[in-house]
């Protein structure tokens, strides 16, 4: 395996383990047009 592939595999496994352990929290933030005040969508954040 190449170094890049091993790193990607480590990242995937670490993310899966953190999600299973409840160590990842997802937040959403509304996107509002500042001029019109119209809701345009959401921005998703993972912490």
Structure in words:
The protein has one domain (2-46). It has one helix spanning 3-21; strands at 26-32, 39-46. It is 40% helix and 32% strand. The model has no long low-confidence stretch (mean pLDDT 92). A hairpin with a 6-residue loop joins strand 1 and strand 2. The chain contains 1 helix and 2 strands; from the N terminus they run H-E-E. The chain has 47 residues and is an alpha+beta fold. It has a two-stranded antiparallel sheet.
Properties at a glance:
47 residues, alpha+beta, 1 helix, 32% strand, elongated, EAL domain-containing protein
How is this fold's topology laid out?
Layout (H helix, E strand, L loop, with lengths): L2 H19 L4 E7 L6 E8 L1
Antiparallel strand pairs: 1-2
Strand content: 25-35%
Helix/sheet category: alpha+beta
The helical percent reads 40-55%
Which residues sit in consecutive blocks of at least 5 with pLDDT less than 50?
none
Number of strands: 2
Q: How many domains make up the 3D coordinates?
A: 1
Average pLDDT over all residues: 92
Order of helices and strands: HEE
